[in-house]
Write a structure and sequence with these properties.
2 copies of one chain form a homodimer.
Chain A: H1 8-15, H2 19-26, H3 34-46, H4 53-60, E1 65-70, H5 76-91, E2 95-100, H6 105-115, E3 122-125, H7 135-142, E4 147-150, E5 161-164, H8 166-179, E6 185-189, H9 195-210, E7 220-222, H10 230-241, E8 249-252, H11 255-267, E9 277-281, H12 287-290, E10 295-298, H13 301-317, E11 327-330, E12 333-335, E13 340-342
Parallel strand pairs in A: 1-2, 1-3, 3-4, 4-5, 5-11, 6-7, 6-8, 8-9, 9-10
Antiparallel strand pairs in A: 10-12
Helix pairs in contact in A: 1-2, 5-13, 8-9, 10-11
The structure holds a DNA duplex.
Chain lengths: 345, 345
DNA sequence: TTGTAGGCGTTATCAA
DNA sequence: TTGATAACGCCTACAA
C-alpha cells in the first residue's frame, strides 16, 4: 500500500552496477562510459526514476524550500505577494512553505522556529501587528538563515528589505481628499509598532500641513490588531464619528481596515462619498476591482513578492557572505477612481 | 557562516554517551535510566536541540508536509480555502506547500509530479480549467499518494471530495434575478470540463424552467480559461450584449468572472443594476465586503479548506487502507444584498 | 571506467 | 540500562 518509488539502488541491482556508478551516470559524469550512461539513463527514464529530494536535502544540507510568514493569506495584498513568491520560487525549483501569524506575536515566533531548524533554506517575512520585539528573528539571522523582509519590516536586522513608498502613497491619498474639498480628515491605521503605520501617518500628516490644515491627534485611531478584530475597528470608527467637529472624510491605512470600515459605514447607512469621504491605502493590484467605492492608492504587490524571492534566493545561493543589503522602495502608482456606493437596503 | 545546528551526535559526544542512548532518552524511552534522561534532556534544552526534520523524514519515509494545487492563490476563494488548510495543517504539525496551476494543464501536471516523488505525504487539489484528462492524478493515486479534491473535482478517482452545493446556489442566484423582474438572463461561466460549470449551469437552467422561462443556449458563454484571460471574458460579454433580445441580467459563475464582468461593465459605462442585473456565484466569505455591487451566494470557503485537510490527514495517518470515500456537499448560505454601483467617471 | 566506503541525522534492532 | 550496527537514499573522495 505504501508509495514505492524506484531508487538508485534498484537501478544498480537491475543493471548489475554499483550505486556510485549509477549515481554518476545519472548526473552525466565524464568518468562513466557512454555505453553505461546510455543504459542507466534509458532504464531510469523507462522506470520514471526521480531522485528522492529528501535524501538529497539531507546530503546537501539544503532543502530547496523557502518559508513564508504573513499575517493572513486571506488578504488580497498578501495573496498577491505570495503569488509572486510562488512564481519565482517554482521557476528556480524551490518549494514555498506558507505559514500565517494571524497578527499574533506568539504564532510568529512559533512559525519562525518551526520553519528554521533546517527545514527551510531561507525566510520571507512581513511582521505581525503584535510584534514589538524581533529577537526571535535576530537569533535565526545570526545563525545564518537568510531572511528577506517585505512591507512590515524592522530596522534591527541588516538584510534585504522590500517596501512600498508608504509616505508618498499616504501623502497623495490624503491630498486627494483635500482636493475633493474635505477638511476634517480622520485616519484609521494599524498597530503603532509596525513600520508601515509610522510611514503612512507621516505622509498623512505632511499632506495636511502642506494644505494648511492642522493635524488633530484625536483624528488618528490605531487598531493594534491591524483590523483582525472587527470590534476594534468599529470602536475606532464610532469614536471618530462622535468627535466635534465630526470628520468629513477618512483615510484608512490598509485593505482590511478599508473594507471593514466600508462595511461598517454601509451598516450605519452612511453613503460614500456623499456623507463621508473615504480613501484606502492599498498595495493590492486588484483593489480597483474589489473596492469600487474606494479611491485607492495602488502598489505592485506582485512585484514585492517576486523581488523578495529573487533577493532571498540570491542570498541562499551566494557562496560568499553578502555584505551589502538593499532596501528597495517600490514606487507608488496613484490610481484614483470615484465610483460611489449608494445605500439602498 | 553556515547554519550549524546541534545534533544528537554532538550531545552524545558532550555527555560521553552513544547516539542511540541519546536518541532514546530524547524520546523518553523507558529503557533509559531517569538519571541519563535528565542529563540528556537538560543538555538538549540548554543547547536548544531540535531534531532535523529532514533526517526524520528520510528515516520514516514521511515528510510531514502536504501539497496544495490551486489555479491561483490571488483569488479570494482559494486564499480562504488555503487559510483553512494552513490552520489545520499547522495544528497537526504538517507543512503546507503551495503551488499554482494558473489554470494551465501543463503546470498542473508538472506541479503534481513535483509534489509527489516522496516530497509530500498527501495532496489537496482543485482542478485547473484546462484539465480534461486526469491520468497524472490517477497515476499518483494508484501509487498510493493520498489525494483530496475540493471544488473542482473529478469522478474518475475514488477518494474524498469536498464541494459546495453548486446546483442550489446557482438555482437561488438565478431565481433571485427572476424575482427582481429580469427575464433575459445570461450566464457567463468557466470551462466546460470543470465539474462546477455543469453543476451551476444545471441550477441556472432549472431556475429558468421553474419560472416558465426558456433557457436559450446563446445566452450561456463559456470561458475556457476560467477568466484568467480578460480578453476571453470581454469577448463573451460583448457577444451577449449584441444578442437580440439583449440580456437584461447576467449570472456570473465565479469570483473572477464576476469581478472582470463588473469591471468591464464599468468601462462600458453600464450601470448595475439600473441598466443590467448582475449576480455572482461566490464561495468566498468576504465577498459581501468586496463586491458591494454584486448580489452573492455565499459558501464557507474556509470550511472547505479545514475539512479537506482533516480528511487528507486522516487518509495519511490511517494504517489500514480507507475503503469508503466521502463526497461532502457544503450547503449554500444565500446572502442577498442590493447595493448598486453608480458609474460617474 | 567502475567500485568501495563513509557520511548526512535519525531511528530500530539486537547485543552487551 | 546502554551501545554497536545497519538502514533510509544519495553523493563523493578515494581505490581498484
Amino acid at each position: 500500500m505504501k508509495f514505492e518509488a524506484i531508487t538508485i539502488k534498484d537501478i544498480a541491482r537491475a543493471l548489475d552496477l554499483s550505486v556510485s556508478t549509477v549515481s554518476k551516470a545519472l548526473r552525466g559524469s565524464h568518468e562513466i562510459s557512454d555505453e553505461t550512461k546510455r543504459l542507466v539513463l534509458a532504464y531510469a527514464r523507462e522506470h520514471n526514476y526521480k531522485p528522492n529530494p529528501i535524501a538529497q536535502s539531507l546530503k546537501k544540507g539544503l532543502s530547496k524550500s523557502i518559508g513564508v510568514i504573513v499575517c493572513n493569506i486571506d488578504n488580497n495584498f498578501f495573496s498577491q505577494v505570495i503569488n509572486g513568491i510562488e512564481s519565482v520560487a517554482r521557476q528556480k525549483d524551490y518549494n514555498v512553505i506558507i505559514t500565517q501569524s494571524q497578527e499574533s506575536y506568539e504564532r510568529e515566533v512559533a512559525n519562525s522556529e518551526h520553519l528554521s531548524s533546517r527545514s527551510v533554506d531561507g525566510l520571507i517575512i512581513s511582521l505581525s501587528a503584535e510584534t514589538k520585539n524581533v529577537d526571535h528573528l535576530i537569533r535565526l539571522h545570526q545563525k545564518g538563515l537568510p531572511i528577506v523582509f517585505f512591507d512590515r519590516i524592522t530596522d534591527e536586522i541588516p538584510t534585504h528589505k522590500v517596501i512600498a513608498n508608504n509616505f508618498k502613497g499616504a501623502y497623495e491619498a490624503t491630498r486627494h481628499l483635500i482636493q475633493q474639498g474635505f477638511r476634517h480628515i480622520a485616519h484609521i491605521t494599524s498597530s503603532s509598532s509596525l513600520s508601515i503605520t509610522l510611514e503612512r501617518f507621516e505622509g498623512y500628516k505632511k499632506a495636511l500641513e502642506d494644505a494648511g490644515l492642522k493635524p488633530d491627534p484625536r483624528y488618528t485611531k490605531l487598531c493594534q490588531h491591524g483590523g483582525m478584530i472587527p470590534e476594534e475597528t468599529r470602536q475606532a470608527l464610532t469614536e471618530l464619528l462622535q468627535l466635534n467637529p465630526q470628520p468629513d472624510a477618512i483615510f484608512t491605512a490598509s485593505d482590511r481596515l478599508s473594507t471593514t470600515t466600508l462595511s461598517l459605514l454601509r451598516k450605519m447607512q452612511i453613503s460614500v462619498p456623499d456623507q463621508i469621504g473615504l480613501v484606502g491605502f492599498t498595495n493590492s493590484i486588484s483593489a480597483d476591482i474589489f473596492h469600487p467605492a474606494l479611491t485607492s492608492v495602488v502598489q505592485p504587490a506582485l512585484e514585492m513578492g517576486t523581488l523578495s524571492t529573487e533577493l532571498l534566493i540570491q542570498l541562499i545561493e551566494s557562496k560568499r557572505p553578502v555584505t551589502e543589503f538593499k532596501k528597495i522602495i517600490l514606487e507608488t502608482d496613484l490610481k484614483i477612481r470615484d465610483s460611489s456606493l449608494r445605500i439602498n437596503q
